[in-house]
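Suppose you are handed a protein chain with no further information: no name, no annotation, nothing but its sequence. What can you learn? This example shows the usual starting point.
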Amino acid sequence: QLSATDMVIGLIKGGMSESEIALRVGITQPTVHRIKTGSGTSYDKGKKIEALYMAAIDASSCIHSDQRASA
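A reasonable first move is to predict its three-dimensional structure. Written in structure tokens, the prediction is:
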């Protein structure tokens, strides 16, 4: 089970900025930064980050599948 911190770091490694994460989740960029650096967050914010993270993984796996299929 990944923490909100792990998911934020994963999204950033995947190319999203803190500002983009904030916009998509509906929180402020400083809140994203605090989560990234290990501060806890509310259940609701954590679930929103999880939803974004899962959507990003799904999108990434679709892109990789398309690339393999066209190779």
